[in-house]
Amino acid sequence: MKGKKNSSRSVFRKVNDWLHLWLGLTSGIVVFIVSITGCLYAFQQEIKNALEPWRFVEVRNKAFVPPSQLLDTASVYMPGAEPTGLTYSNKEGAAAVGFGGEENGKRTFTAVFMNPYTGEFLKKQHTRGDGEYDFFRFVIDGHRALWLPYTIGRPIVGVATLIFLLLLATGLIMWWPRKWNKSNVNKSFKIKWKGSFKRVNYDLHNVVGFYSLVLAFVLAVTGLVWSFKWFEDGLYYVTSGGEEMPEHHHPHSDLSKANLLANDTIPVLDKAWYKTLAQEPNAQGFYMTPELHDKEDAIEVIAYQDHGSWYNRNEYYYDQYTLEHYRVKGDKYSEASLADQLVMLNYDIHVGAVWGLPGKILAFFISLICASLPITGFLVWWNKKHKTKQTRLPKTKSSPRSVSVS
Fold it and tell me: What's the pTM?
């Protein structure tokens, strides 16, 4: 009975090790690209802030200009283009109007930066398209889709990330000491820096992989949310205790009151902005959709509570004819359910911004470790394969000279 148990465990370990090897070899290149680009992207906001001075303005003791004034200025530099987003930053940041579109089958985006206190033009920046190279757009396209069309690359990244989760599980089983004695514990928790290259490489894969396992798991799970809708829905179902994820929708304006603000000289978007500002005097940034395409659309204004992160936000929806404030489920982070809060947190957790700069530093190193695992794992396999070939070489008779020398 005991022999059968040991034999069963041995077969399980063999299957586990085989899965870890071949899943790692087949997904290694994709995991490396996704991880190293994630590593490069970790400090993109800080790098942009350092290299792009037009993102900042001198703080003034006056109110921001209304959205309509920013839109008028932006339209001068983007004639005929339709604005797709408008943002205010904190007191030190520039405001911006974004113009998204498509050109020659590729997505394009242009941002017009302005002084929020005066509406003065600062900079027109193409971040996609028009032949202008943008390093971080290149990085994020590799991270999300391997520089392939998103319809092709994103599923490949998603499948490789699912495989990576399996590699974390099989790797933990391989790491787990058969006996918890001092020798095995040292091998599992310590890197033998004075050992051979093969030993150090093995420890970098085995030991460092173990220490990064939990956070690597978090990065993989939060990344999968954007790869597969079924995964996002399943995660919401689990974290909500069995509820289905609601479809994101905006409330509808009341068409029966469509003429109430027809003769008003103040644009309705400005009124919605001032109404939100009265509720959010300490917000660290705002986003709104400047153009309404449907007669039933509601005006959307998002107020971000913290500078540099996006999860802690309050969403406001207003009837475009009456400015009545509509509430929707999960429109305020502080009042949302756990599942809805996790949806809002997903991006900030993925990039580490939820913990500020220390979190980004941590995300940087975990991504770097994840990028190293396919390399160290490949070298472990290659060294074992090379050693196996050497042991299989036919033995030759030694010459008398070689015997006497040895």
Answer: 0.87
As a whole number of angstroms, the distance between CA 134 and CA 141 comes to: 11
Compute the distance between CA of residue 315 and CA of residue 335 in angstroms, rounded to an integer.
Answer: 12
Closest by CA to 376, choosing from 164, 143, 176, 208, is 208
First-to-last alpha carbon distance for the chain, in angstroms, is 49
Q: Report CA Rg, the chain.
A: 28
Residue 290 to residue 301: CA distance in whole angstroms: 9
Q: How far apart, in whole angstroms, are the C-alpha atoms of residue 82 and residue 18?
A: 55
Residues 69 and 52: their CA atoms lie apart, in Å, by 23
- State pLDDT tens for residues 2-34: 444 444 467 999 999 999 999 999 999 999 999
The pLDDT tens digits of the residues spanning 378-406 come to 999 998 887 766 666 565 554 444 333 33
Instruction: Give the closest residue to 359 by CA, choosing from 263, 250, 218.
Output: 218
Left (φ > 0), alpha (ψ -120 to 50) or beta: where does 393 sit? beta
Q: Which residues pair with 298 in a beta bridge?
A: 319
CA–CA gap between residue 314 and residue 280 (Å, rounded): 9
Cβ contacts of 271-279, under 8 Å, gap ≥ 24? 271/323, 272/299, 272/301, 272/316, 272/318, 272/323, 273/66, 273/67, 273/301, 274/66, 275/316, 275/318, 275/323, 275/325, 276/301, 276/303, 276/316, 279/303, 279/316
